[in-house]
Amino acid sequence: MSSCELRWTGPVHDSSSRFILDWMENRLDAVQASKLQKKRIVHVAIELLQNLHHHSASPKEKIVFSIHETNSNRWTVRSQNPVKPEAQKPLEDRWTQLKSLNLEALRAQRMKQISKHERSLHGGGGIGLNEILRKSDGSAEMNFSKSQSDVVVTFIAELPLRS
Q: Is residue 88 over pLDDT 80?
């Protein structure tokens, strides 16, 4: 059984991201999450929020970001957003490739991406998926679903509150 700690529905902007992250940091302090786990959870949330901000297709009202606490002192951080249908295959391929790597290989891949100094249109280096997997110790999943004419991607990362 889990309890919903936070649920955000609708467009994600800089101000909403700041609100969510401030709330998370305060709540993680209140539940006495370890410093390392707090850092990991916040990093995963940042990447998921950036994905929502930069990569969501319309309708933006279908964007969802939520946090649930389980009985086992873990947080499940979940994001869901519409994507353009043509983005599904490349995203699935990239995720599958990254999921096949161990944590050390993910670290090496990240360093290689950073050293290229290539940036996307929104300034990132394409390392968000890598960060989600690394910071969650591989405990993250990505799924696609279709609802009416929309393709929706869902990311779910489960992270312990204490190390």
A: yes
